[in-house]
Amino acid sequence: MASITSNKVRALLLTGGIDLDTNTLKVMLVGTGYTPDKDHNFADSITGGSTKELSGTGYTGGFGGGGRKTLASVAVTQDDATDKAYLDAADVTWTAIDAGTVAYAVVIREVTADSDSPIIVVVDIAPDVVTNGGDYTIQWAADGILNLT
């Protein structure tokens, strides 16, 4: 899974403005109409339009919508053997979802609105996954959702 981080989260990490293993993080599903950009700093850079954040059966997009899942078992690990640190969490499952094509999973810190909810990482789901009413599970990579080397 390839991923990019936003410039905002980079600044927050350097200033201590975010604590990835104690803040509540959510994952949102985004369609093929979105093009990842490091300058997209907040969730409102993504939301809106039928081809951006998914919406449909089993997934209601938008701030406070029922589609975004809270990440569980979030952990930040320092791995001296491979000279990196990484963020990981339990895999996430949406039940009976039929809401479009998943191209990206976007991890955010949902605050009080999409306009102040920073994007942590945009993870490329390759190949894209067409939801069809079945369950959809994201199995995070062995080296986590986000890793820094």
Task: List its salient traits.
3-stranded antiparallel beta sheet, 10 strands, 1 helix, mainly beta, 5-stranded antiparallel beta sheet, globular, 6% helix
Query: Structural class, from helix and strand content?
Result: mainly beta
Shape: globular
Helix amount: under 10%
Which runs of at least 5 residues are low in confidence (pLDDT < 50)?
Answer: none
Distance linking N and C termini: 16 Å
Report on this model:
The protein is mainly beta. It has one domain. Helix content is about 5%, strand content about 35%. It is built from one helix and ten strands. The strands form three sheets. A five-stranded antiparallel β-sheet has the order 1-8-7-2-3.
Secondary structure: elements and pairs:
Blueprint: E1 3-5, H1 7-15, E2 26-30, E3 69-70, E4 75-79, E5 84-88, E6 92-94, E7 101-108, E8 119-130, E9 136-138, E10 146-148
Antiparallel strand pairs: 1-8, 2-3, 2-7, 4-5, 5-10, 6-9, 7-8
Summarize the structure.
The chain is mostly beta strands. The chain contains one helix and ten strands; from the N terminus they run βαβββββββββ. The protein has one domain.
